[in-house]
Amino acid sequence: MKQKVIVIGAGITGISCAEELRRSGAEVTLIDRVPAGDPSQTSFGNAGILAREGVMPIANPSMLKMIPQIMFSPNSPVYLKWSYLIKFAPWALGFVMNGTRPKARPIINALNELLYDTVERHTQLAKGTKADRYITSGDLTFLYRHKRQFTSDRFANQTREDLGITWTELSRTNLLERDPHISNLYKFGIAYNNHGWITNPSAYVAALALHFQKNGGSIHAGEVVKLGQGTVMLKDGQKLTANSIVLATGAWSKGLASALGHNVPLQAERGYHLSLKSSSIMPPNTYLIMDKRFGLTPMDGFLRCAGQSEYAPLDMPPNQKAINNLRQFLYRLYPNIEHEGETTWQGTRPTLPDSLPMIGRSPKDASIVFAFGSQHLGLTMGPKIGQIVRDIVLDKPSNIKIDAYSPSRFD
Ligand SMILES: Cc1cc2nc3c(=O)[nH]c(=O)nc-3n(C[C@H](O)[C@H](O)[C@H](O)COP(=O)(O)OP(=O)(O)OC[C@H]3O[C@@H](n4cnc5c(N)ncnc54)[C@H](O)[C@@H]3O)c2cc1C
């Protein structure tokens, strides 16, 4: 008999789980309060980078040294309202404690497992769907003001080398050969090889959802208010049942997951984008601008500049200062850039203090499988999480060790 599965959340995580399960023969219903590709999803407006190199936890030995500089410099890429400090403090403490070398090492290995084959995983997920056209391969270039900013980060560089992540050093001359518009603020670069990006993240997710639906998957519009024991309750009073329920509700997962009795220290880490239509300058591949910590991606007809980390409640209105920062950072890189209009967006990353997602069956309720918490890397790791969840739900053997992602690790 076919396994009946409900997946809640139609962002990149949920659609990856739903499609993998459908392909393996399960009867899958995908529930979301908004359509896939909607601007309220975090999957709508990210930088599109398939960050295979992103193995460093957000809190890591190099980053901890920079906290005072990051928090107190004007136009910092990271910020926090002082009025939120008391609520934020317990999470921040856990976050900082995970940044030491001994704590970071197992986290790095667990992140690497989710990232190392990202381009192949996306290619496989999108194969035969209209999402396929949005996948591009190429370098991911980190831009630095000076070479020493790269060389001084020995822990991260050694970690990446140990994991077989390869790169090419780019002098200022090399950078200009690739992109003559880079301002003279940036004198050094590192091109990480074998990376990729998605040229329109919202269209990508929408195309995957359409394929899922056209091939027998069911999509149900509604807001889930309660779940447990194989049952999902919707806001309009409907009740749906399944053998397994996958919770892939991104930054909104805390309430539903905590109601099952788990400690889920999920923090809303808000980010922003500025997209320039018909930009006069397009970088040859994706960039991360290291002093201001933002991503720059040549997309399908527009240039996207995305970043900022704002620790704040989920429902706080967008902060115009973050958009102004991004605009200012972009003009520092490309002083002569022109365009035909801009759009702006705020989205919310789901971040746990150890930078790892929660993936696995809830020990409190065997019908529930967690799949959320993919922080800055949810697009990159989405298809891999989809495969892991498929194997958990269908009880398939797997070589991937999932203990590090355990839903009960903070209980
Ligand atoms: C500025 C920015 C830049 C980023 N850049 C990158 C990048 O370059 N590369 C990368 O890999 N990652 C990036 N990320 C991170 C990435 O976008 C997220 O990790 C990822 O989109 C999370 O996907 P998700 O499917 O888990 O969540 P979402 O996309 O947010 O989807 C969650 C879904 O759950 C639904 N939902 C929630 N609660 C309920 C409920 N009760 N009932 C029904 N439905 C519900 C929501 O409506 C939503 O559709 C970036 C994030 C930001 C903010």
* Number of structural units classed as domains: 2
Cα-based radius of gyration, to the nearest Å: 21 Å
CATH class of the largest domain: Alpha Beta
- Can you summarize the main beta sheet? 10 strands, mixed
Architecture (CATH level 2) name of the largest domain: 2-Layer Sandwich
Which ligands accompany this protein?
A: flavin-adenine dinucleotide
| E-strand count | 19
- The dominant shape is globular
CATH topology of the largest domain: D-Amino Acid Oxidase, Chain A, domain 2
The CATH superfamily name of the largest domain is D-Amino Acid Oxidase, subunit A, domain 2
Share of β-strand residues: 25-35%
**What value does the average pLDDT take?**
95
Task: Give a written overview of the molecule.
This protein has 411 residues and is α/β, with parallel strands linked by helices. The chain has two domains: 4-45 and 202-265 and 355-405, FAD/NAD(P)-binding domain (3-Layer(bba) Sandwich), CATH 3.50.50; 71-97 and 134-198 and 266-350, D-Amino Acid Oxidase, subunit A, domain 2 (D-Amino Acid Oxidase, Chain A, domain 2, 2-Layer Sandwich). Helices cover 32% and strands 28% of the residues. It is built from 13 helices and 19 strands. The chain has helices at 12-23, 61-65, 67-72, 85-97, 101-115, 118-126, 147-151, 154-162, 172-178, 201-214, 253-258, 320-333, 378-393; strands at 4-8, 27-32, 49-50, 78-80, 135-144, 167-171, 188-198, 218-221, 224-228, 231-234, 239-241, 244-247, 267-277, 286-289, 294-298, 302-311, 342-351, 358-362, 365-372. The strands form three sheets. Strands 3, 4, 5, 6, 7, 13, 14, 15, 16 and 17 form a ten-stranded mixed β-sheet that branches. Helix 1 (12-23) runs parallel beside helix 10, helix 1 (12-23) packs parallel to helix 13 and helix 6 packs across helix 13 (378-393). The longest helix is centred in the C-terminal third of the chain and has 16 residues, at 378-393. It is globular. The protein starts with a strand and ends in an 18-residue tail after the last helix. The mean pLDDT is 95.
